[in-house]
């Protein structure tokens, strides 16, 4: 693999920053391979690479995963450097309508910096259109490449990994948790709610109250899951359970629980897809994995314990529709009895539910979500004639800077703030641990074969955290 790329002909550039690698890598690679086949040179990697090099990179198109108010200054910097910006909201399907606008996921100021907003379905587009009618021309319903994976490609990509997991763990129940507020990774120095509020803009009192109520519900249900799991583990002592903590969560409470039960493991390893495909069933709370499990034809259980009726507004309909909903411990234990004795678990999805889902998740069509996005992107391309060279990774610069900053902090900043920066750094590494050369090339090869591309794709490493994807004749 090369150490840099030199471009000697007309080129168009696509930049794909990744925040959470276990969630975004495969879908970003699917988009990258498709784009490379259409003549794009794609740069894919950790967000900090783009922060440092935004003015050094050839003008191109950025596809970002969010446009929250706290990112406004970064969006302006990208825009001022001559790039175009598209937002493909990774969290736009299993979320509250209240969070899509209202200065939470988007604000008027961040939308003004964007050239396009690609939505998961018509419902997300309608919410944005109602709140920000002046941005109507930027809204496009495309779906998300993750849908293309869920609808069949992930089974192909991860076939070997699924076999390996089954060989090691055998039959198991997968518990992909989603208590990022009640059990936040950085809870030692800041609450999950404080992170949500910090990322948001000047929200109204009503939205802030909604956030606080939703955070309270998340914390209550987290404690109930911790309380009910021992009973499940004892009742089904001969069944393996695997907890996969959400990337935003601390694994500590689950590891503490696992010490007391031989049939419980805590595993956070790679993409969740192969773990779903290898599982007997999936047990979750308000998780996007419910959709993925549905497409993988896995029985899916969610438990919503008895709560005050005022908390009904904090339920999310999409995960419930894709799951067998249990509202008491008794019904939960019964659902597990059904699944673990190989009986069919009632799903209960009615025609009205299907109609609702089709508004939030773009229905499957002859043209894939990836193809729709690529078609839209071509209208935004910025091409270069003169030779361009991509900058090296910012890693060396960041290491030097971090040492200087650390020295200053040690002398001038309180212990509490030093602890915050230490845990924040650990959290960043947890979300993006690096790009495996072998894994990336293997996935790219499978994608190439699946989409029947006409060109040979080459992956070039710029650092341990950044790669480029392009056709052979685009590189030298």
Structural features, described:
This protein is α/β, with parallel strands linked by helices and 476 residues long. The chain folds into 2 domains: 6-146 and 364-405 and 433-474, Rossmann fold; 159-358, Rossmann fold (3-Layer(aba) Sandwich), CATH 3.40.50. It is 46% helix and 15% strand. It is built from 20 helices and 17 strands. The chain has helices spanning 21-37, 47-53, 72-80, 97-100, 108-112, 122-131, 145-157, 159-169, 192-199, 205-235, 252-258, 273-278, 289-295, 317-321, 329-340, 351-360, 369-377, 395-412, 415-431, 437-451, and strands at 6-7, 11-18, 40-46, 61-64, 84-88, 116-119, 139-141, 172-176, 240-244, 264-266, 281-284, 300-303, 324-326, 383-384, 388-389, 457-461, 466-471. The strands form 3 sheets. Strands 2, 3, 4, 5, 6, 7, 14, 16 and 17 form a 9-stranded mixed sheet that branches. Strands 10-9-8-11-12-13 form a 6-stranded parallel sheet, sandwiched between helices. Strand 16 and strand 17 (466-471) form a beta hairpin. Helix 1 (21-37) packs across helix 20. Residues 395-405 have low confidence and may be disordered.
């Amino acid at each position: 693999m090369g150490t840099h790329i030199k471009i000697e002909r007309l080129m168009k550039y696509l930049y794909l920053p990744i925040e959470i690698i276990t969630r975004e890598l495969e879908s970003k690679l699917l988009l990258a391979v498709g784009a490379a086949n259409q003549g794009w040179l794609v740069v894919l990697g950790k967000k900090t690479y783009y922060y440092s090099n935004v003015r050094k990179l050839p003008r191109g198109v950025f596809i970002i995963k969010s446009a929250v108010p706290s990112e406004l200054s970064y969006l302006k910097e990208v825009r001022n450097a001559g790039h175009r910006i598209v937002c493909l909201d990774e969290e736009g399907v299993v979320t509250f309508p209240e969070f899509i606008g209202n200065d939470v996921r988007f604000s008027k100021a961040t939308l003004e910096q964007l050239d396009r907003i690609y939505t998961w379905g018509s419902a997300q587009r309608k919410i944005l259109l109602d709140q920000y009618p002046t941005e109507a021309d930027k809204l496009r319903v495309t779906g998300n490449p993750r849908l293309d994976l869920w609808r069949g490609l992930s089974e192909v990509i991860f076939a070997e990994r699924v076999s390996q997991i089954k060989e090691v763990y055998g039959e198991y129940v997968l518990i992909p948790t989603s208590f990022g507020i009640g059990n936040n990774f950085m809870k030692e120095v800041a609450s999950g709610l404080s992170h949500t509020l910090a990322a948001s803009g000047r929200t109204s009192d009503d939205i802030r109250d909604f956030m606080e109520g939703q955070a309270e519900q998340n914390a209550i249900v987290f404690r109930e899951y911790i309380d009910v799991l021992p009973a499940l583990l004892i009742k089904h002592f001969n069944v393996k359970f695997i907890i996969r903590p959400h990337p935003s969560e601390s694994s500590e409470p689950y590891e503490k629980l696992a010490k007391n039960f031989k049939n419980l493991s805590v595993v956070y390893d790679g993409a969740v897809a192969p773990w779903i495909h290898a599982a007997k069933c999936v047990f979750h709370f308000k998780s996007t994995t419910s959709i993925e499990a549905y497409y993988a034809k896995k029985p899916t259980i969610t438990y919503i314990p008895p709560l005050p009726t005022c908390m009904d507004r904090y339920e999310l309909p999409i995960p419930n529709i894709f799951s067998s909903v249990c509202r008491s411990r008794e019904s939960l234990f019964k659902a597990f009895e059904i699944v673990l004795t190989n009986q069919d678990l009632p799903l209960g999805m009615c025609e009205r539910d299907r109609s609702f889902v089709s508004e939030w998740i773009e229905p499957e069509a002859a043209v894939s979500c990836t193809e729709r996005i690529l078609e839209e992107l071509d209208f935004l391309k910025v091409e270069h004639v003169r030779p361009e060279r991509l900058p090296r990774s910012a890693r060396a610069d960041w290491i030097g800077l971090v040492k200087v900053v650390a020295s200053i902090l040690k002398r001038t900043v309180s212990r509490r703030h030093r602890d915050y920066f230490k845990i924040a750094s650990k959290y960043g590494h947890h979300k993006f641990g690096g790009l495996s050369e072998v894994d990336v090339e293997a996935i790219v090869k499978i994608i190439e074969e699946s989409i029947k591309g006409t060109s040979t794709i080459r992956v070039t490493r710029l650092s341990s955290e950044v790669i480029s994807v392009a056709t052979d004749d685009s590189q030298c």
